[in-house]
Design brief:
The complex is a heterodimer. Chain A is built from 1 helix and 28 strands. Chain A has a 4-stranded antiparallel β-sheet, with no helix packed on it. Chain A starts with a helix and ends with a strand. By secondary structure, chain B is mostly helical. Chain B has one domain. Chain B is built from 12 helices and no strands. Classes of the chains: A mainly beta, B mainly alpha. The interface between A and B is medium-sized, with 16 and 12 residues.
């Protein structure tokens, strides 16, 4: 009896326990939210959203979702249990990408048409200020310590360093053409910026605000024009980072120490945004044109499956 | 026939086939070079050919070389099956076939033994090919390499039986070129080895129908699914039935009183 119990216990311990997670994905064309089981990739349900939903984030207490409904010029607040819209945030015109400051009170959203970054107080549900930035602001990133907010402007080709205390620009860095997305390293020493037209990934030193180094991407059998780096995601261990390469249908795995591409993962068409499962075992990619998401096993760096979720999946938020 | 007799005969047949294979080192290399050239040269130019459809057993997007790998394993077995048919024609011309067939053991048993020996050789080649392919980033789940084995046995037997059937119809060694032109090439190109059925259907309905009913297609699909730890029942039944039919005709063909041996005057009297 003891033997059996021990064997059962050993099996339980040795079996890879994976925590189930839920994915919330905005469907740009369906004007809807797809709810997907992270482990199986099964579409659980869809719920209606405002027009052209793109950026998405969980509230700090994970009870609500914020969704940028671009054509409705608002950020919708969704109750995560009922999936109903329970409020709106004044997000300015055509909000697309936004980030929640780690303190949980302020949202920074880029307004592409107005060349501004709007700062929203989530508690008061009002816009606090507007920060004038370069032409066509796009990517937003916030450092883990909350010290820096950066915004990339696609046409000015700049990274704007915003001080979240004074909400003013402290510095600007010129980067390669059409900077799309940015991500800080977990230790906060580096900022990674993708440039869509140049097809490069730049590493910026956070102290000096200068470009330290940059790399291009080369995939056998894929035209250089199709390699358009967009979404970028840093693994919390600061060893690997992942870059979505848009119409190249690949995600590049970059070694953060050597700053070289280790592998290209074949995913769906026009891969855009990326997210990890809470246990960091899986990486999820939204593939706009092929209407699906791909699931990557992070340990083996292999794409395990691709699952249809709806038309034009764009943003993704993951909840435990 | 006692069990001991059977085992001794089977051992002898397999040993002879293995010896023949191992001594012809160039045959082993040629058997590997052929699919590897297809993999490294042909497939390299078609990396994005399959477009966006995800077809079972694959659960995500794959490169063309991943798709073609199962077809190339089929190719190894197809050529091996034909190679053994060639060696049987040779055996017949040289007279060693007579020695085999005059033994007191049943004909079907002797032919099955020869078939098993040939299949064993093709399985060895297939696994060496997969080992090389592994380093080319064509990697199936570990379990797939185990579940592949029975699929390779059945596919190998079916293609071997086809070769045996053909060998009973071929009069002389020189006629083997005809087998290449009229059997191997059409079978290979009109199958799912190079393109999936949906892709073939896009270009020609006729080709789609031919490829669907081609037993070689079904053998490949059986292999493809097995390599990913899945069982394709339709492909399994189709391949099994094809094997039984080919084998029955082959046994009949090698019957000295009824089959092709009489017509050719080559059977033992």
């Amino acid at each position: 009896m003891i033997k059996i119990t021990l064997i059962t216990l050993a099996l339980l311990i040795s079996s890879p326990m994976s925590l189930a997670d839920t994915l919330y994905i905005t469907l740009e064309k369906d004007n809807a939210l797809a709810v997907v089981d992270g482990e199986t990739g099964k579409l659980l349900k869809t719920a209606p959203l405002g027009q052209r939903p793109r950026g998405i984030a969980l509230s700090e207490d994970e009870t609500q979702l914020y969704v940028a409904a671009s054509d409705d010029d608002t950020i919708q607040i969704i109750d995560i249990k009922t999936l109903k819209v329970v409020g709106n945030l004044p997000a300015g015109e055509d909000p697309e990408t936004f980030r929640l400051h780690p303190a949980g009170q302020f949202i920074y959203v880029s307004n592409e048409d107005d060349n501004i970054v709007t700062v929203i107080d989530v508690d008061k549900k009002e816009a606090v200020t507007e920060i004038a930035v370069g032409v066509e602001p796009e990517g937003i990133a916030v450092s883990d310590d909350g010290q820096w907010v950066v915004n990339t402007s696609e046409t000015t080709n700049m990274v704007h360093w915003i001080d979240p205390v004074s909400n003013t620009i402290k510095d600007n860095t010129l980067v390669d053409p059409r900077p799309r997305a940015a991500a800080f390293s977990t230790n906060g020493s580096a900022l990674y910026v993708t440039s869509e037209i140049a097809g490069t990934l730049s590493k910026l030193n956070v102290d000096t605000k200068q470009v330290e180094t940059k790399i291009g991407f080369k995939i056998p059998g894929v035209d250089k024009e199709l390699i358009q780096p967009v979404g970028v995601l840093v693994h919390p261990n600061d060893k690997l980072l992942f870059v979505a390469l848009g119409p190249a249908n690949r995600v590049a795995v970059v070694n953060m120490q050597t700053f070289k591409v280790e592998k290209y993962l074949l995913v769906g068409q026009r891969v855009w945004n990326l997210a990890f499962s809470p246990d960091l075992k899986r990486l999820y990619t939204t593939n706009g044109v092929s209407n699906d998401i791909s699931i990557v096993d992070v340990a083996s760096l292999k794409v395990t499956k691709s699952v249809r979720v709806g038309h034009y999946p764009w943003g993704i938020a993951v909840k435990k | 026939m006692t069990l001991t007799h059977g085992v001794i005969a089977l051992k002898g047949i397999i040993k002879r086939e293995l010896w023949r294979f191992l001594r012809q080192r160039e045959r082993f290399i040629a058997a590997l070079v052929r699919p590897l050239v297809w993999l490294f040269v042909f497939a390299a130019g078609f990396r994005s050919t399959l477009g966006i459809a995800i077809i079972p057993p694959y659960e995500t997007y794959i490169l063309y070389e991943v798709y073609i790998a199962a077809g190339l394993i089929g190719m190894i077995q197809l050529f091996n099956g034909m190679q053994s048919s060639l060696s049987m024609v040779y055996d017949r011309e040289m007279g060693s076939m007579k020695t085999l067939l005059v033994s007191p053991l049943p004909r079907w048993f002797l032919l099955t033994g020869k078939l098993l020996a040939g299949t064993f050789v093709s399985i060895l080649q297939a696994y060496v090919f997969l080992l090389i392919a592994w380093f080319y980033d064509i990697q199936a789940p570990w379990l797939g390499y185990v579940t592949l084995f029975p699929a390779l046995v059945l596919a190998g037997l079916m293609l071997g039986a086809l070769g045996m059937l053909l060998s009973s119809f071929i009069k002389q060694l020189e006629n083997f070129a005809g087998v290449m032109n009229f059997v191997i090439f059409p079978m290979f190109f009109m199958s799912t080895a190079l393109y999936p059925l949906w892709k073939i259907k896009e270009s020609s309905e006729l080709l789609f129908t031919l490829a669907s009913y081609n037993p070689f297609s079904q053998a490949i699909e059986l292999i493809r699914f097995a390599l990913y730890g899945q069982f394709n029942l339709y492909a399994f039944v189709y391949t099994l039935v094809a094997f039984v039919v080919f084998m029955m005709i082959a046994v009949w063909g090698y019957n000295p009183s009824k089959g092709m041996m009489v017509k050719k005057g080559g059977g033992p009297r």
